[in-house]
# Entry
Amino acid sequence: MSDKFIGFHRLIEACDEAGCPACRCLDADTHRYLTAFLYEHVTDPVSRSRLRASWGLCNWHAWMLRETADPAFGSAILCEDLLRVVGQRLERAASRAATRPATLLGRLRARLGRARAPAIARIYRRRILCPACSELAHAEERYLQTALHFVDDPQFEQAYEASHGLCVPHALAALELAAGDAAGRRLLARTLPKWAELRRDLAGFVRKHDHRNREPFTEAEASAYLRAIEALHGQAGLFANDLRRQAPSERRASPSPPSE
# Structure
């Protein structure tokens, strides 16, 4: 990685945009990937098999297909195939369940409210990553490794100084990749002042809501809450929500949060 390459220059360009530079790069990469997928891989047997194994794209990437140029035809081909394959899987699963005799253990689990999830549901939860997410995971690591490797490069340093800096999830991921190396600490040291400046804008926005205040909001203060949401959580849609982290049975068994 001693030579500067396309990923480095994409990261530099992203520093000129609002928000986390890594998020911006990944968003652009995703659009490029999905456009290429619809135009070049819809009928490719290997790509089709990979998509069947992941039960299609994830929710985020499936809806992002609408943002590609002329998505209807390619999306229709993919969805027709996936609906056929998934329908067949569920039909076979339902047929096997109907002919399988109930066991004493199964009846006991059901009585206790701990019935085991159907096999098809467990297979679905163990499905491989969405192909777009898999590509994105590799790209994310490359961008963060690039930032760590070139953290002291004058060109990168100047661009990063003018940027909003990494979001919290990407800053933590960079520290993890750095594995205790000084590059991680230096990148964080250049990021923390940006979050401190954002906090000052947030504090100013809150303070000026006092009914006695006559001072107008600055542009930075007015947009601070949106910038803060991205700084804390990353770009919208880039990181998964927690809704599906647990199976329904696990959610039911989760302890209630402590009362304050």
Notes: Residues 6-130 form one domain. The two ends are 50 Å apart (CA to CA). The chain has a mean pLDDT of 87.
